[in-house]
Amino acid sequence: MEFKTGKWTREKLETAKQELDAIFAEAVKGPGGSFNRKSVQAIQEARFDIADLIINIVEETFLLTDPTALLVDSTTGNLGDIELYREQSSALRMVNRAIGSKPISQRLQFNERNIVTAQKEVAVEVPLEKVASGSVTPSQMATNMAIAIQRDRISTTVQAIDDAVSATPDRTGLSGWNLRYTGFTQPNFDKAIDGIMDESESPTVFGRHSVLAPTIRAFTGFGLENLDILTERGIIGSYHGAGILTVKDQYNKYVGSHVIRNDRAYVVGGTKGAISKTVDVGFLDYVTVDERTATFAAGRRVEYGTLVWDPLRYRVITA
Q1: Closest-CA residue to 66 (of 16, 139, 4, 110)
Q2: How far are the Cα atoms of 8, 182, 239 from residue 62, in angstroms, in the given order?
């Protein structure tokens, strides 16, 4: 399991936010704290520096807290490319040989699937009067853009897995061992985790705190565990060798909802059965200032999609 890491630490991220707000403060306010009549022109002149800071803040905030590496592998691509995911579908086998006989040739077979992506954007505008009065800061804009992207990435990734995993038997060949289970019971969690460990390693149970914590705390074998790599992405515990991750900051009071449903828990191993493709469309990002309306606007455009190529590498437990 590898998390994509950014260039900045959390301390550097906070410093960049302060730098962004300072650029606006210097542009909007004149000597002695008075309003600068040329503030719009000053922001226009600094908009490339502003754009660079905003986009970096958005990207680094997302990377520091993105938990989707627990669920899927990742890849990147270029705009307009059609990328096919190749999955080996056959294996070589040993065959008996008669003395003097010709060899029985074998070939590896592959399936190819297209990773479908969708382009999305998050754009925000703020009147310069709000910035001048201090009621809105540019760093708030950037942080909320990152939150919007993260919420969408998590929800679309989890939904893709949920849609792909059907109520069919797993590959263990044992009776009652399936890909989906109904009921947050210890036997169901045991079978889901053991089914994953039968073909993979380092399983993780992923879900909302209200789903996982009250249930698993009561299980024999559960213990608290802190791993540095996960402290920014959730609260971690351990149950029978599986990490327990409850996603942080799920609820957004402005949106009025959680990202993940409260009737689902997901189990995934270190070997993923899905791949998330991100296309770099950063050249479409923008920062503008409308002098007529005295409005500052920023937009971040992204493109991504998830292909679940092997649903049997996941388990879903529903209430």
Answers
A1: 4
A2: 11, 33, 28
Q: Give Cα separations from 222 to 214, 219, 292 (angstroms).
A: 11, 6, 61
Instruction: Single out the residue of 188, 150, 74 nearest to residue 302, CA to CA.
Output: 150
Residue 248: predicted pLDDT: 58
CATH code of the domain made up of 165-276+307-318? 3.30.1930
Q: What is the pLDDT of residue 162?
A: 93
Distance CA 167, CA 157 (A): 19
Run means of pLDDT, 10 residues per run, the chain, 319 residues: 57 85 74 65 78 84 78 85 77 88 86 87 86 82 87 90 92 92 92 91 84 82 61 65 71 70 88 90 84 84 92 92
- Indicate the SS3 state at residue 95: coil
Amino acid at 193: I
Model pTM above 0.90: no
Q: What is the DSSP string of 224-242?
A: E---GGGTTTEEEEEETTE
What is the residue extent of each domain of the chain?
165-276+307-318
- CA distance linking residue 301 with residue 286, whole number of Å: 9
